[in-house]
Design a protein that fits this description.
single chain; 223 residues; OB fold (Dihydrolipoamide Acetyltransferase, E2P); 5-stranded mixed β-barrel; 10 strands; 33% strand
């Protein structure tokens, strides 16, 4: 080949190489663009949990931060006193005359106080009180809230037919009889013969205990 032809051939090859080079660069750019479309975009550091982690870490490390976010603990309710609440009435005593009122079988036992105030209905073990009808007694117990009832815990006979009387249990005292009262034993000097059959019974006894005569009545029969 002549030198002229070799020069022309080299020129044509160089031109062809220059023409292909832009296509190659455009292809590389396109490939990079396609790869950029499918790859995950880069995000700022604070959106990758850095800010959240710092907040959490700061909350745990900062004294009082968790406590300030926590609601205050509930306090137990204070005790309340209901206005007008009634307490148990204190024990009291009444003195008066026992009455059995009403018609059988709906009779009631009441007490007409010695001071002339209104009668009160007696409750509790009223069997002995029924046997003390018309006698003057002293009852001990608890009054009702309305003052119309009285719960009797115990009672003592004070008088019969307007005369003083003793209340106690009949006991044997050798060949004689005695009455065991709340204040001690009282010897009966001339008791009724029938009273000898009432040993162990609770009775009321009137008259002079030393000489008699002694009217009496049974309050609680002998066991």
């Amino acid at each position: 080949m002549s030198a002229r032809r070799r020069g022309l051939t080299a020129f044509l090859l160089a031109g062809a190489a220059c023409a292909r080079q832009p296509e190659s660069r455009d292809g590389e750019a396109g490939a990079q663009a396609s790869a950029g479309d499918t790859a995950a975009p880069a995000l700022p550091a604070d959106t990758l949990g850095g800010s959240s982690a710092a907040t959490t870490s700061g909350g745990a490390d900062t004294p009082g931060a968790a406590d300030s976010a926590r609601p205050p603990a509930a306090r137990p309710p204070a005790e309340r006193t209901t206005p007008g609440a009634r307490r148990d009435a204190s024990a009291a005593t009444l003195r008066g005359t026992v009455r059995v009122v009403g018609s059988s079988p709906l009779t009631r036992v009441s007490l007409r106080p010695a001071d002339g105030s209104a009668a009160v209905v007696l409750s509790g073990d009223t069997a002995a009180l029924r046997r003390a009808a018309a006698l003057e007694v002293e009852v001990r117990g608890r009054p009702g809230a309305d003052g119309r009832e009285f719960a009797v815990e115990r009672f003592t006979v004070l008088a019969a037919n307007g005369e003083p009387a003793l209340d106690g249990i009949v006991r044997r005292d050798g060949e004689a009889l005695a009455l065991e009262t709340a204040g001690g034993r009282v010897r009966l000097g001339n008791p009724p013969a029938e009273l000898r059959d009432q040993v162990g019974a609770r009775v009321w006894v009137g008259g002079d205990p030393a000489t008699g005569p002694n009217p009496y009545g049974v309050l609680v029969p002998a066991p």
